[in-house]
Amino acid sequence: MKCPYCSHPESKVIDSRDSETGETIRRRRQCESCLKRFTTYERVEYVPLYIVKKEGQREEFDRSKILKGLVIASKKCSIAPSQLEALIDDLENELRTSGRLEIPSREIGEMVMERLKPLSDVAYVRFASVYRSFQDVDQLRKTIEELAHQRAPKRRSRKVVSEVSGNIAFSEGEEPAETQ
Ligand SMILES: [Zn+2]
After folding, report:
1. Please, are residues 93 and 110 in contact by the beta-carbon 8 Å criterion?
2. pLDDT exceeds 80 at position 126
């Protein structure tokens, strides 16, 4: 930070405090050359992040929407709420550090699935059924088979099929649909 009086590039911080709202940090500095004092403010830059939906509309990235979908997909699975929060933190961090301002919703769905897969097969398949908008049972079966193939023992796939069937409904919409 250049000194506003003499343009010297080095200064030392002599006092630092948060603003009342905690959104900015005020720093009192002293120029190392002319010794005059000046103040700087530091704040987090707000960068909007947009999800581009299939039909092309933009929507601001909304953690709570993704969380809602995950909660529905992981119903009765042994995933702790903190694991879902951590999943979204990780996702948001990757999106925000990518420097991209617009991300297709499909890509976000795939990123969620990639992170959901190690946590629960059932939740993964339920979530996949919504984000990949399965048109028919064959597509659903294909996803379960792919999953089972990666997991080796064959018994596993039957378990997933029986746990998943009856819990999902095919939906054209963005929100996971349920049947009970
Ligand atoms: Zn100076």
Report:
1. no
2. yes
CA distance 61 to 109: 12
> What is the CA(24)–ligand 1 centre distance, in A?
24
127 pLDDT more than 80: yes
Mean pLDDT of 154-174: 49
Distance of alpha carbon 42 from alpha carbon 131, whole angstroms:
39
Q: Ligand 1 mean position to 14 CA, how many Å?
A: 14
Structure tokens at 47: 């960068």
C-alpha of residue 35 to centroid of ligand 1, in Å: 6
Torsion of CA 64, 69, 75, 80, to 10 degrees: -40
- Range with lowest mean pLDDT among 50-59, 146-155, 168-177: 168-177
Span 43-68, average pLDDT: 87
CB 74 within 8 A of CB 84: yes
- The CA 23 to ligand 1 mean position distance, Å, reads 28
Mean pLDDT to the nearest integer, 26-31:
95
42 CA → ligand 1 middle, Å = 20
